[in-house]
Write a structure and sequence with these properties.
Helix content is 51%, strand content 5%. The protein is mostly helical. The protein starts with 5 loop residues before the first helix and ends in an 8-residue tail after the last helix. It comes from Nostoc flagelliforme CCNUN1. This is WD40 repeat.
């Protein structure tokens, strides 16, 4: 992803949490400098090391097979935004984190 795309992606993912420009600047700064990503001369970011890609690919595969060890799933199951009354549901990463961040909606500062 190119650094110029960060503000739009942050707004799309975090919605009302980054309503004010100063909030967006904070997230933008963190994404540009406080990550496991590196930036090339064109401003495109990629993982700092191939092992990160390998880990996430393996994690996704094991999760899809349904064979993750319980200690990997306990954290996700402990999230407060999960409704334990309804049956389990498949989510994409984007859908899950969008639901997660909606639980942190900050009241507008009027």
């Amino acid at each position: 992803m190119n650094y110029k795309e960060f503000p739009d992606q942050i707004r799309r993912l975090f919605g009302s949490v980054v309503e004010e420009e100063k909030d967006l600047d904070h997230w933008h700064f963190d994404m540009m400098g406080q990550t496991m990503l590196i930036r090339n001369a064109e401003g495109d970011y990629s993982p700092a090391h191939r092992s990160l890609l390998e880990f996430f690919a393996a994690y996704k595969l094991v999760a899809e097979l349904g064979v993750l060890a319980p200690d990997f799933t306990e954290l996700a199951q402990a999230q407060s935004c999960l409704n334990t009354v309804v049956p389990p549901q498949d989510y994409t990463w984007t859908e899950y984190f969008h639901i997660f961040w909606q639980s942190f909606v900050v009241p507008s500062r009027s």
